[in-house]
Amino acid sequence: MSVRDLLRASGRVDLARIDTGSTPGTDKAAAKKQLPKDAGALEAWQERLTAENARSILLVLQGMDTSGKDGTITHVVGAINPQGAQIADFKQPTREELSHDFLWRITKQLPAAGKIGVFNRSHYEDVLVVRVHNLVDESVWSARYAEINEFEADLAHHGTTIVKVFLHISKKEQAERLIARLDDPTKRWKFDEQDLVERGSWNDYREAYEDAIEKCPGWFVVPADHKWYRNWAVARILIETLEEMRPEFPQPDLDIKGLKKRIAETA
Ligand code: AMP
Ligand code: MG
Questions:
Q1: Mean pLDDT over residues 23-27, rounded?
Q2: What is the C-alpha to C-alpha distance for residues 95 and 154, in angstroms, rounded to an integer?
Q3: Pocket-testing residue among 92, 128, 194, ligand 1, by greatest number of atoms within 8 A of Cβ
């Protein structure tokens, strides 16, 4: 079975019942062995995508603080040619961004043809943090699921394959990672007291995620307590997506003999 089939969410998901420490489809030894091969495959496919220069992928990474969004970008996206990736992260909106529709800032960061776009957080924040903290009226955020579906359908129609990944960690794992951030002088800068506020709303976030995953279909729920599994699974999902898209190297109809002759003539 493909990793996409193993991890694809369908209908109503109960996140509490998905084991964040599970490793569907592999084990540590097999994944470690496969990773270099996968990195090569991903790079090769990405080169074809660039050469084809017609379609794109948008990888959307969502998850609670410390779930590994940054780490996934370092390890998985880091495996491809940096020129082929287009990475954007979405923080608290600026005043200017807030003065526009919530999709305004998103649209500006969409991947160009031939690119793998990566969103570290995304338009989904507008039905997650915004909903959990009542930053807008319920009538506003609840209308956004349909708006997001319309937006994503439009993207798909124009050649962007959207890959939405929820990095699923346990509350206990988050505590350990937050403590590790405090303990490690090279990670301390990442500690944000706001993360503790968000942690206090863990169950509200879980519900908000479950709703987003149900109402805006096309998500993969990746158990992410194990970093090696998270990296392996996201790489596999991207490879399987590219295998299905099958981008091809263009074969321009060139007069090779004639062109070589002209090159020789200009020596
Ligand atoms: P980080 O990902 O750790 O850099 O933190 C970014 C912060 O920005 C997170 O706490 C997000 O919840 C927050 N954020 C991202 N998008 C929005 C949004 N549309 N509205 C409010 N907060 C947001
Ligand atoms: Mg943070």
A1: 97
A2: 27
A3: 92
Q: What is the residue-wise DSSP string for 90-123?
A: --SPPHHHHTS-TTHHHHTTPPPTT-EEEEES-G
For residue 130 and ligand 1, the question of a CB distance below 6 A is answered with yes
The predicted-structure confidence for 50-98, as pLDDT tens digits, reads as follows: 999 999 999 999 999 999 999 999 999 999 999 999 999 999 999 999 9
Strand residue runs (E) in the chain: 56-63, 85-89, 116-120, 160-168, 219-223
CA 91 to ligand 1: nearest atom: 8
Q: Which atom of ligand 1 is the closest one to the Cα of 133?
A: 21
Rounded average pLDDT over 88-109: 98
| 252's tokens | 């321009």
Q: Closest residue (by CA) to atom 4 of ligand 1?
A: 91
**Whole-structure pTM value:** 0.97
pLDDT of residue 267: 84
Positions of E strands within 95-248: 116-120, 160-168, 219-223
**Contact status, residue 35 vs residue 232, Cβ threshold 8 Å:** yes
Cβ–Cβ contacts within 10 Å for residue 217, how many?
13
Read off the tokens for 190: 């990442």
Verify whether ligand 1 is closer than 6 Å to residue 173 (CB atom): no
pLDDT at 162: 98
Q: Domains in the chain, ordered, with CATH?
A: 3-265 (3.40.50.300)
